[in-house]
Amino acid sequence: MLFIYIDYYYMAYDDQSRRTLMHFQPFKLQLMLRYHGCDASLLLGGAGSEKESPANDGVLGYDVIDVAKAAVESVCPGVVSCADILAVAARDASVVVGGQSWTVRLGRRDSPDSNAAEAATDLSRGNMNLGELISNFANKGPNTREMVALSG
Questions:
Q1: Is residue 50 a known part of a binding site?
Q2: 12 vs 67: CA distance, rounded Å
Q3: Residue 128: pLDDT over 60
Q4: Which residues are in the Plant heme peroxidase family profile domain (predicted)?
Q5: What's the rounded Cα separation, in Å, for the pair 62 and 105?
Q6: pLDDT at 82
Q7: Of 96, 102, 109, 101, nearest to 8 (Cα)?
Q8: Which CATH architecture has domain 10-116?
Q9: Which of 21, 30, 35, 97 is the most exposed place for a label (fewest CB within 10 A)?
Q10: CA 70, 111, 147 angle in degrees (round to 5)?
Q11: DSSP labels, 77-121
Q12: Where are the domains of the chain?
Protein backbone atom coordinates (compact mmCIF):
# COMPACT_ATOMS: atom_id res chain seq x y z
CA MET A 1 0.00 0.00 0.00
CA LEU A 2 1.27 3.47 -0.88
CA PHE A 3 1.11 6.08 1.87
CA ILE A 4 1.29 9.78 1.09
CA TYR A 5 2.22 12.18 3.89
CA ILE A 6 2.25 15.94 4.35
CA ASP A 7 5.73 15.76 5.89
CA TYR A 8 7.10 12.92 3.75
CA TYR A 9 10.53 14.54 3.21
CA TYR A 10 10.75 16.30 6.57
CA MET A 11 13.05 13.91 8.43
CA ALA A 12 15.46 13.30 5.56
CA TYR A 13 16.70 16.85 5.05
CA ASP A 14 17.85 19.94 6.85
CA ASP A 15 15.87 23.18 7.08
CA GLN A 16 17.31 24.61 3.85
CA SER A 17 16.29 21.53 1.87
CA ARG A 18 12.79 21.60 3.30
CA ARG A 19 12.40 25.32 2.56
CA THR A 20 13.45 24.75 -1.04
CA LEU A 21 10.92 21.97 -1.51
CA MET A 22 7.99 23.45 0.40
CA HIS A 23 8.26 27.09 -0.64
CA PHE A 24 9.33 27.04 -4.28
CA GLN A 25 6.52 28.88 -6.06
CA PRO A 26 6.33 28.45 -9.84
CA PHE A 27 3.71 31.11 -10.57
CA LYS A 28 3.38 30.45 -14.30
CA LEU A 29 2.39 26.80 -14.04
CA GLN A 30 -0.85 25.84 -15.74
CA LEU A 31 -3.04 23.53 -13.68
CA MET A 32 -3.49 21.56 -16.87
CA LEU A 33 0.02 20.15 -16.42
CA ARG A 34 -1.02 18.63 -13.11
CA TYR A 35 -4.28 17.30 -14.50
CA HIS A 36 -2.70 15.78 -17.59
CA GLY A 37 0.37 14.44 -15.83
CA CYS A 38 -0.26 13.83 -12.14
CA ASP A 39 2.15 10.86 -12.17
CA ALA A 40 4.76 12.98 -14.00
CA SER A 41 4.58 10.71 -17.06
CA LEU A 42 3.85 13.82 -19.12
CA LEU A 43 7.33 15.10 -18.32
CA LEU A 44 9.01 12.12 -19.98
CA GLY A 45 10.01 13.07 -23.50
CA GLY A 46 10.96 11.06 -26.54
CA ALA A 47 9.25 9.41 -29.48
CA GLY A 48 5.92 7.88 -28.55
CA SER A 49 5.70 9.71 -25.21
CA GLU A 50 2.69 11.58 -23.80
CA LYS A 51 4.62 14.82 -24.13
CA GLU A 52 4.71 14.31 -27.91
CA SER A 53 1.02 13.41 -28.21
CA PRO A 54 -1.16 15.94 -30.09
CA ALA A 55 -3.57 15.68 -27.14
CA ASN A 56 -0.99 17.53 -25.04
CA ASP A 57 -0.10 20.27 -27.53
CA GLY A 58 -1.64 22.98 -25.33
CA VAL A 59 0.11 21.97 -22.13
CA LEU A 60 2.34 24.71 -20.73
CA GLY A 61 4.65 24.96 -17.76
CA TYR A 62 7.35 22.41 -18.51
CA ASP A 63 10.01 25.08 -18.02
CA VAL A 64 8.68 25.92 -14.56
CA ILE A 65 8.81 22.29 -13.46
CA ASP A 66 12.35 21.98 -14.87
CA VAL A 67 13.48 24.97 -12.79
CA ALA A 68 11.74 23.63 -9.66
CA LYS A 69 13.24 20.17 -10.13
CA ALA A 70 16.73 21.64 -10.60
CA ALA A 71 16.37 23.74 -7.43
CA VAL A 72 15.21 20.76 -5.38
CA GLU A 73 17.87 18.47 -6.88
CA SER A 74 20.58 20.95 -5.88
CA VAL A 75 19.81 20.42 -2.19
CA CYS A 76 18.47 16.85 -2.09
CA PRO A 77 19.42 15.00 -5.28
CA GLY A 78 17.50 11.95 -6.40
CA VAL A 79 14.85 12.04 -3.69
CA VAL A 80 11.94 14.34 -4.50
CA SER A 81 9.64 13.06 -7.23
CA CYS A 82 8.47 15.16 -10.15
CA ALA A 83 4.94 14.04 -9.25
CA ASP A 84 5.29 15.77 -5.87
CA ILE A 85 6.72 18.87 -7.53
CA LEU A 86 3.70 18.94 -9.86
CA ALA A 87 1.34 18.65 -6.89
CA VAL A 88 2.98 21.51 -4.98
CA ALA A 89 3.25 23.67 -8.11
CA ALA A 90 -0.43 23.15 -8.97
CA ARG A 91 -1.43 24.22 -5.47
CA ASP A 92 0.78 27.30 -5.66
CA ALA A 93 -0.52 28.22 -9.12
CA SER A 94 -4.07 28.02 -7.79
CA VAL A 95 -3.25 30.40 -4.95
CA VAL A 96 -1.46 32.87 -7.23
CA VAL A 97 -4.51 33.23 -9.45
CA GLY A 98 -6.83 33.70 -6.47
CA GLY A 99 -7.91 30.10 -5.95
CA GLN A 100 -7.89 28.07 -2.80
CA SER A 101 -4.88 26.54 -1.12
CA TRP A 102 -4.79 23.02 0.27
CA THR A 103 -2.41 20.79 2.13
CA VAL A 104 -0.32 18.73 -0.27
CA ARG A 105 0.49 15.23 0.90
CA LEU A 106 3.91 14.19 -0.36
CA GLY A 107 5.45 10.85 -1.24
CA ARG A 108 4.19 10.23 -4.78
CA ARG A 109 6.28 8.18 -7.16
CA ASP A 110 6.94 9.12 -10.77
CA SER A 111 5.65 6.95 -13.57
CA PRO A 112 8.42 4.90 -15.18
CA ASP A 113 6.90 5.22 -18.64
CA SER A 114 4.85 7.48 -20.87
CA ASN A 115 2.50 6.51 -23.69
CA ALA A 116 1.25 8.84 -26.42
CA ALA A 117 -1.46 6.38 -27.47
CA GLU A 118 -3.01 6.50 -23.99
CA ALA A 119 -2.94 10.28 -24.03
CA ALA A 120 -4.69 10.28 -27.40
CA THR A 121 -7.54 8.10 -26.13
CA ASP A 122 -7.83 9.29 -22.52
CA LEU A 123 -7.55 13.07 -22.82
CA SER A 124 -10.09 15.52 -24.17
CA ARG A 125 -9.41 16.93 -27.61
CA GLY A 126 -9.92 20.44 -28.93
CA ASN A 127 -12.54 19.33 -31.43
CA MET A 128 -14.89 17.74 -28.85
CA ASN A 129 -18.33 19.30 -28.37
CA LEU A 130 -19.65 20.08 -24.89
CA GLY A 131 -21.44 16.76 -24.46
CA GLU A 132 -18.32 14.83 -25.44
CA LEU A 133 -16.19 16.87 -23.03
CA ILE A 134 -18.58 16.31 -20.13
CA SER A 135 -18.68 12.58 -20.86
CA ASN A 136 -14.90 12.35 -21.24
CA PHE A 137 -14.31 14.04 -17.89
CA ALA A 138 -17.10 12.14 -16.14
CA ASN A 139 -15.48 8.85 -17.18
CA LYS A 140 -12.46 9.85 -15.11
CA GLY A 141 -14.42 11.20 -12.12
CA PRO A 142 -14.65 15.01 -12.38
CA ASN A 143 -18.12 16.53 -12.62
CA THR A 144 -19.07 19.35 -15.00
CA ARG A 145 -18.06 22.13 -12.59
CA GLU A 146 -14.66 20.53 -12.01
CA MET A 147 -14.26 20.07 -15.76
CA VAL A 148 -14.76 23.80 -16.29
CA ALA A 149 -12.22 24.63 -13.57
CA LEU A 150 -9.63 22.25 -14.98
CA SER A 151 -10.18 23.42 -18.54
CA GLY A 152 -9.58 27.06 -17.67
A1: yes
A2: 22
A3: yes
A4: 36-152
A5: 22
A6: 83
A7: 109
A8: Orthogonal Bundle (1.10)
A9: 97
A10: 95
A11: TTTS-HHHHHHHHHHHHHHHTT----PPPB-----S---HHHHHH
A12: 10-116
Q: Name residue 82's amino acid.
A: C
Predicted confidence (pLDDT) per residue in 34-65, tens digit: 555 666 777 777 777 777 777 777 677 777 77
- Using alpha carbons only, what angle is made at residue 43 by residues 3 and 125, rounded to the nearest 5 degrees? 105
Q: Is 52 annotated as a binding residue?
A: no
Nearest-angstrom CA–CA distance, 54 and 42: 12
Residue 48 amino acid letter: G
What is this structure's pTM? 0.60
Angstrom distance (rounded) from CA 85 to CA 87: 5
Question: Using CA atoms, how far apart are residues 65 and 54, in angstroms rounded to an integer?
Answer: 20
Q: Which residues are catalytic?
A: 36
The dihedral built from the CA positions of residue 17, 25, 110 and 47, taken in this order, carries a sign that is negative
In Å, what is the CA distance from 98 to each residue of 44, 91, 111, 147?
Answer: 30, 11, 30, 18
* Torsion on CA atoms 63, 65, 71, 77, rounded to nearest 10: -120
